Predict the 3D structure of the following.
Amino acid sequence: MMPGVHEVDVTPMDPERLVPFLRSDRAEEFRTIVERGRRRFAGRTVWNVSSTAAGGGVAEMLHRLVRYAKGAGVDSRWVVIDGTADFFAVTKRLHNRLHGEEGDNGELGDRERQLSQDVVADNAGPLMDLLAPEDIVLVHDPQPAGLLPVLRDRGIVAVWRCHVGTETTNEWTDDAWAFLRPSVETAAATVFSRAEYVPAWVPHDKVRIIPPAIDPLSAKNQPLDDHAVLAILGRAGIVDHSGDGAEFVDTDDRRRTVELTANVRRVGSPLSPDVPVLLQVSRWDRLKDMSGVLRAFVDGAVGGETGAHLFLVGPDVTGVTDDPEGKQVLDECVAMWEQLPAATRATASLISLPMDDLEQNAAIVNALQRHAAAVAQKSLREGFGLTVAEAMWKARPVIGSAVGGIQDQVRDGVDGLLISDPHDLGAFASAARTLLGDRASADRMGSAAHERVRDNFLADRDLGQWTNLLGDLAVGD
Ligand code: UDP
């Protein structure tokens, strides 16, 4: 591939289409926000720069923001930077350390700084060729942060959006911030998902807190009836079902059929649709603790006591180019699973979803979340956790670790159950047994979860916050 940036093609969607999903008392306010955005950004392009168009929460969120901004009449575009494997090893190290974990045992010193600068230099030229002086640029996460000083020097308003973080500092967070600070300090503003993640050296007046939101119309979250759910899971080879109707609506408003087959490691044939499922969908990232979910499910006899089956689901690891740890983490889970006694192994499946067609991938995730009796997000650290909002929107109760943004979403005992120590496998298993064994409580929590997302984590809230921030920076009114 040629070095430099490439643009992600996003189809516009009229924000008015979101209105039926919002609280009815918010419709007018939302229309006002859309109108204000249209006026404020007339003649300017709002650019997003990230390191991948696929896999993970940032890509998910950008598809949505760009889609509705364009639909509102705001010229909005998204480019992805190109980088080397060595560069992405450094940025993964930064990602882990911003979460307070060592990650690998590599350095963040002069060599790594030079490596980053080389990648920035390769991307900066092609990016600058695309920009006009009055444009606004949102730079997402550590990977492209080195572009911030270049943008500042060109007099372009650039905002850094950090999607990760941790509440407490330690030597690893210090290490990562020391590396990033010279770049981040040049941003016109910084945006975090939680106030607790903001480093002390960032001036207060330059910070905004904007938690992510989800798109109720995307292939990932759109309504699917029970028939479509089973047809999609049957077609993907995950559940034993052979009916037609594996359909969803894509971003171009076309009705499409799921044709992808998942790579499923399981004992025997596809699971019966009648078996209750505990699901975790995540990137194969150590901090998502997929292997901890498997260990807790097995050692805590969750399957044995409730008759439930565990689905651990992640992307095909060759499809997420900016995450070099993925294959290793998946291999570790597979090794753990293969060592289980055959009868226990039969209660859990490891599933990799192809990434060749992101909309089909999303439709399968949607069907999995709707099919699940309960959804787990047993992260050891979590920036926000879109998977949590996605499951809650589908009225699924969530068993989550009380870390990062999961705590802002799930109210313990109301929308699901929170585990205060994310390493406590016994507490996780006990919560899973409780939710899977008490259908009435699970349903009640699922309904509360749906309301919670509608009130707090849909686009009316975050599009409004972004419009205000960018409007203030670029227009000053
Ligand atoms: N996801 C997906 N396919 C997969 C695994 C994950 O589409 O096989 C999506 C998931 O539904 C969610 C996003 O990737 O939308 C993950 O976002 P989250 O904020 O939970 O975590 P991140 O990956 O950003 O750390």
User: Anything to note?
Assistant: Residues 56-58, 60, 220, 281-283, 313-315, 353, 361-362, 365, 384-387, 390 surround uridine-5'-diphosphate (CB under 6 Å).
